[in-house]
Every structure is written in structure tokens, then in C-alpha cells.
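TL;DR need C-alpha cells for one chain.
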Amino acid sequence: MAKNRVGRPAKVEEPATESDGTSMSKMDKVKAALSSLGPDAKPEAIHEHILTTYNTDLPKTIISNYKSNIKRKGGGLLRSSGKPGRKPAGGGDIRIDDLEAVRALVSRLGAAHVRRLVDVLS
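>> reply
TL;DR here they are.
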């Protein structure tokens, strides 16, 4: 058995084996529960789901830690749809400069022509 730095035997944890012979880690069980219950599921609901589905009693603190790790690493369902640091397309802040530019175009070209330009660009 491998030893850790303080000379104690390292804790080796084997993944649980499912009835069909495949192994599933605790993290995989939490991910599966999140995919079934949704990314906003509370640790209590995840605990109950894992207990009934896999007959495994995971402490809620471990479930909460795994859920945080999944969210932090961007693992699957909890990932946001946009890239970090980017503003949503077509949205965002409108500045006074932008409105003044549109106003100048409307006064120079006319509102109908500016509307047609916007339709072409979108």
C-alpha cells in the first residue's frame, strides 16, 4: 500500500460497481444526479437522488464540494453558454456616443434608410 508524507497508509478508494459491472465514481454519480435534477439542485435533493438511484449514501458536504468543483471547472451542465469575459451579442451597454451617432445618421440619411441598413446588418 502506498504511504503518504507522514508515513500513514494512503486511503485508496475504489469506485462503486454498478449492477451491470461498470464502475461509477462518486463524482460521476453527482454529475448524473445534476443532469437529472438540473444545475440548481440542492445537496439535499442530490443526496436523496443518489441514495435512491445508486443505493449509495454520500455526505452532503461531499456533494456540495463536488458540485462546486464541477461548476468551477465548467463541467458540462453548470457551464454558462457564453465565453467568460465577453458581452452578450447584440446586448450590452449603450453609451451616449452611440445614440449621437445614430441620431447623426438619421438626420443625414433619414429614419427609413437607417432602418433598412439595420435590417441588412442584422
